Amino acid sequence: MEENKLYNAVQKTITLADGREITIETGKLAKQADGSVVVKMGDTMLLATVVAAKDAKEGTDFMPLQVEYKEKFASCGRFPGGFMKREGKASDAEVLVARLIDRALRPLFPSDYHADVFVTVNLISADKDIQPDALAGLAASAALAVSDIPFGGPISEVRVARINGEYVINPNFSEMANVDLDIMVGGTIDNILMVEGEMNEVSEDVMLGAIKFAHEEIKKHCAVQIELSKELGKDVKRTYCHENNDEELRQQIIAELYDKAYAIATSGTAKHERSEAFEALEAEFAARFTEEELEEKAPLIHKYFHDDVQKKAMRNMILDEGKRLDGRRTDEIRPIWCEVGYLPAAHGSAIFTRGETQSLTTVTLGTKLDEKMIDEVLVQGSEKFTLHYNFPPFSTGEARPARGVSRREIGHGHLAWRALKPMIPTGEEMPYALRVVSDILESNGSSSMATVCAGTLALMDAGVKIKKPVSGIAMGLISDSATGRWAVLSDILGD
Hints:
There is one protein chain. Helix 1 packs across helix 2 and helix 4 (247-265) packs across helix 6. This protein folds into three domains: 3-231, GHMP Kinase, N-terminal domain (Ribosomal Protein S5, domain 2, 2-Layer Sandwich), CATH 3.30.230.70; 247-323; 336-472, GHMP Kinase, N-terminal domain (Ribosomal Protein S5, domain 2, 2-Layer Sandwich), CATH 3.30.230. The protein has helices at residues 92-105, 133-145, 204-231, 247-265, 271-286, 291-321, 407-420, 447-461, and strands at 10-15, 21-26, 35-41, 44-52, 65-71, 117-125, 156-163, 166-169, 179-187, 192-199, 336-340, 348-354, 357-366, 372-375, 380-383, 385-390, 433-442, 475-480, 485-490. The protein is 30% helix and 26% strand. By secondary structure, it is α+β, with helices and mostly antiparallel strands.
């Protein structure tokens, strides 16, 4: 039987500036998923699928998106390590790639779309010199593009490295030895969505140049996906209704509560006191309704209060007055206090506190036997410098159990590790294995960057001859497209 009678495969090709090709194929594998594609570059192949529930679960008022990225050991002819000889839970590296995909996709689903969406990307064939994480975002987006799931994309993600002063898109492993900039950039055909990576103290112009260079490539990837979606008739998405709105109630809440919320926002109170005041204001409004009425109205009251009153009051306060929730100016950093050598039995320790965010960080020196062994599908070896970040529930006053290491903890720890890694001495200057552990004891924004600051202090307390001290803060952008107003925030709060 002829092959084309068994399936109808459609293929598109993207040509990179250096002549390498990326192909996107659909209609051949995993056809029962809502969307399925295979992205191929050289001998590397990623299978991406997406499935969405037909309806939202009752009471869901957020985007329940789950992204999984998995590398199959068979993809490059290897057995998994360990006794079981099969793939187990996601490695830290796989979690980090899944988070890269998630961060670019999540903002583009409609704000009123609340059905469960599962995106799965599997590395099914691996060229040992091609970095598959640079293709994962494209694969996930292409799967959405060939589905009928509502989505404001397409997007793509690319790696940009600067090698000998020249920008390169999606470089191979063998080209990464002497790079001074290595970033992943995600974006749509119009805008940038996400940037993550590391640099060796490059200038602002170099950084901006890399982002612009990446976006030119991303535009090409998006154009191909749009073409593919139209060819398959998937540019028209499914209809849905996940919210029942009450415009009269919304206007009533805005009219009665906005000024009161603005007064709370400008009061300059502490985090928990401010939260309690907002909750009390919402509860006071809800108290006028009977229990029977609240069964229907409670979710809408909470939504309208949060989106149209609390959020807008906080944003307008910043844009109108240049003043923030805790009374600071937009460029003002919260008060800082630090202490080193706090733990007498640890090799090195430090407390770093910025406002209501606090990290207690330790450094432990070890021998070669303590180095982290790496046995991933495409990367094997050892790592002398590790950093772990812990975010217990008590740090935000939450009464809930701690259940293993979260993806957020893996991601935030990796950010801090990337910031400190270039400053760790190498060779004979650093004969030890190093482990930095940041325990977040209080959190109100910027805890990953508190880890960077506390890590620097603890490393110096342990006597490690770091090349330079490193610090970090989290930044934010508040903008109002209707009026063209905007403000950049230094050292953001959790709110």
